[in-house]
Amino acid sequence: MENSGLENFLLIATKPDNIPIGTMLLFVAWVFWVAIKQMIAHDKLIKANKKEKIWDEMIK
């Protein structure tokens, strides 16, 4: 019986050479999520005419 797609993926992803790449992808996804979260917060401040508070939010 053949391996399923998930089994093949895990077989390749857990090889020692590929673990740093997977870790990097998780880190990039986390940084992207933080950036999107901050962007949404800053857009809300801009719409509320509180542009001066963006800097205060950034240095917290």
Low-confidence stretches: none
Which percent range fits the helix content? over 70%
Q: Please tally the helical runs, counting DSSP H or I stretches of 4 or more residues.
A: 3
Q: How would you describe the shape?
A: elongated
Major sheet characteristics: none
Structural class: mainly alpha
Per DSSP, what share of the residues sits in E-state strands of 2 or more residues? under 5%
Mean pLDDT: 90
Report the radius of gyration as a whole number of Å: 20 Å
Order of helices and strands: HHH
Separation, N- and C-terminal Cα atoms: 56 Å
Work out the number of β strands.
0
Describe the 3D structure.
There is one protein chain. With 60 residues, the protein is an all-alpha fold. It has a domain at 19-58. The chain is built from three helices and no strands. It has helices at residues 5-13, 19-47, 53-58. It is elongated and about 60 Å long. The protein starts with a helix and ends with a helix.
